[in-house]
Amino acid sequence: LDASCAYQPSVVKERDGLYRMWYRACEAPGPFGGPSGGTIGYAESNDGITWIKIPQPGPGGAALAAGPAGRFDSGGLTTPSVSFDGAAWTMYYAGFDTSGQFLTGLAQAPR
After folding, report:
1. Residue 87's CB: how many other CB atoms inside 10 A?
2. What are the residues whose beta carbons fall under 8 Å from the beta carbon of 24, sequence distance 6 or more?
3. What's this model's pTM, rounded to 2 decimal places?
4. How far apart are CA 19 and CA 75, in angstroms?
5. What is the pLDDT of residues 32-71, one digit of tens each?
6. Of 30, 44, 57, 77, which is most buried, counting CB atoms within 10 Å of its CB?
7. Whole-number Å distance between alpha carbons of 34 and 27
């Protein structure tokens, strides 16, 4: 999931001893050696310093994966921004299609 890149983190301290982080992850280098595609990975920490990647149900363990062909986010995902309101998680992210056009996506999940 993140063999080529792991960056652009969004960290939420849910409570003492539990930090949650979502980040951009890339499986392989893209053109010119830069990152390709991209999914959203997930990790946890008890101190905000040492992180453990926690595989999620998406392809390759992604918390959020690129959309199917023809969707606004079919080329990949980047820049997650996560918040928690006590009952639900909200993530805004940038998705891009195969022509390179970026749009804003929204993903939500209950606690």
Report:
1. 7
2. 5, 6, 7, 8, 35, 38, 39, 40, 41, 77, 78, 79, 80
3. 0.89
4. 29
5. 555 578 999 999 999 999 999 999 999 989 999 999 999 9
6. 77
7. 11
